[in-house]
Specification:
The structure holds two protein chains of two kinds. Chain A is mostly helical. Helix content of chain A is 77%, strand content 0%. The longest helix of chain A has 26 residues, at 53-78. Chain A is elongated. By secondary structure, chain B is mainly α. Chain B folds into two domains: 1-53; 56-193, Tetracycline Repressor, domain 2 (Orthogonal Bundle). Chain B is elongated. Classes of the chains: A mainly alpha, B mainly alpha.
């Protein structure tokens, strides 16, 4: 059960996202005073959680990344054999579609524009790249360094395409494509003829 | 007799787009870019500019449309002259090559705007559907014998991967784009050749 403070925070995030989606003006159509008004919450109280609209989106973006990064770190620390490592990639994708919020496309749009979100995006991408390389190295051993690097890049870019897709569809559709997506990544990583 | 320079319009449009991208890079905020400011910097009247653009968002939208229309024109020609599976496979490859070679130095900023501005997002989604339909057609002819369901699912995956590729390739230096393109095409080919898909 979530506490009252977290509940308020979630309400603010949802309302901000909803306002941006509704307004069709991008972020310039959203302001914290308007969000506070719509939630019947004093602005002063709202600003105890977030100082700017950018702050709201950054918080949501970081929340998702933090969860996924924690998941990979925890699993990588306990992976003993290639199968364990392979399961990390699968589990990561499962977790990803599960925690991605319903209005994820709005968060995604903001991450392409807001400076702090762009920075976080860059940071997260670099971090996922390092971690993916570790997973691939453990899960599909025997690859030479250059192949490993190139395959990591391809898996990484595939993940961002998958993110773009999933953010715009419902969870059921995410699940449908997930099986195919996993198969495709596996096929690619099993490829012994890669160069 | 009055001679009209037919290049004036495209040149001005190009200058406007470049100016808008430069301003965005500099100010990191769309709120600080305006049509009057762009007109002033380019030494043209606001009325001249408003003949082509209604807002800053409109500048990015029209640039996005222009880029994609050019790629579609090129690709349509390749598809139209294809006869055999080999031709279609070639047309499939040429699409990616054309896409990468058409990317500008500031493609990262243009992508960011296409993923952020509401009208650009709308166009992006519309264009995605158009691309998916073409991928479907080309895959069907280039890799014949796939049953309908497999064809649809593979097309969806190729579209997903392509948009991941776009996001990746605009953020790396031009020289590296060609290298990753080769790997990317290998990956797609491997996927499309897969006879065990399901």
């Amino acid at each position: 059960m979530i506490d009252k403070q977290t509940e308020k925070k979630v309400k603010i995030i949802n309302k901000t996202v909803e306002s941006m989606k509704k307004g069709n003006k991008g972020l310039s159509g959203v302001s914290l005073p308007d969000v506070a008004k719509e939630l019947s919450m004093p602005l002063l109280e709202l600003t105890q959680f977030f100082l700017t609209v950018e702050d709201v989106f950054l918080n949501e973006q970081k929340r998702i990344n933090r969860k996924l990064e924690k998941y990979i770190d925890r699993k990588l620390a306990t992976a003993k054999n290639p199968n364990d490592a392979k399961e990390i990639l699968e589990g990561f994708l499962d977790k990803f579609i599960e925690i991605l919020p319903l209005n994820a496309e709005v968060i995604l749009a903001a991450t392409f524009y807001l400076p702090l979100c762009l920075e976080e995006r860059k940071r997260a991408k670099a971090n996922y790249k390092i971690k993916l390389k570790m997973i691939i190295k453990k899960g599909w051993p025997g690859k030479i360094e250059s192949v490993l690097d190139r395959q990591t890049d391809l898996v990484l870019l595939s993940l961002y395409g998958f993110y773009d897709y999933c953010s715009r569809v419902k969870i059921g559709e995410r699940r449908e494509v997930l099986i195919d997506f996993k198969n495709m990544l596996n096929l690619h990583l099993q490829d012994r003829l890669f160069f | 007799m009055v001679f009209v320079d037919v290049n004036i319009k495209p040149k001005l449009k190009e200058r406007v787009v470049n100016r808008a991208v430069k301003a965005l890079k500099q100010h990191k905020s769309l709120d600080r870019i305006s049509l009057p400011a762009i007109a002033l910097e380019l030494g043209v009247s606001i009325e001249d500019l408003q003949n082509y653009y209604s807002s800053v968002e409109d500048i990015f939208l029209k640039a996005q449309k222009k880029d994609w229309e050019s790629i579609h024109r090129y690709w349509d020609k390749q598809i139209l002259k294809s006869r055999t599976p080999g031709d279609y496979k070639n047309a499939f490859d040429l699409f990616f090559e054309q896409f990468v070679s058409s990317l500008s130095d500031d493609a990262d900023m243009r992508l960011e705007m296409s993923c952020y501005l509401p009208s650009c997002i709308k166009y992006r989604e519309k264009n995605k559907k158009k691309l998916r339909d073409k991928f479907y057609k080309v895959i069907k002819r280039g890799w014949p014998g796939k049953e309908e369901k497999v064809l649809s699912r593979q097309t969806e995956l190729i579209t997903i991967l392509f948009y991941g590729f776009v996001d990746h390739v605009v953020h790396i230096p031009k020289i590296e784009r060609k290298r990753i393109l080769r790997d990317f095409r290998n990956m797609l080919n491997l996927h499309l050749q897969d006879r065990k898909f399901f």
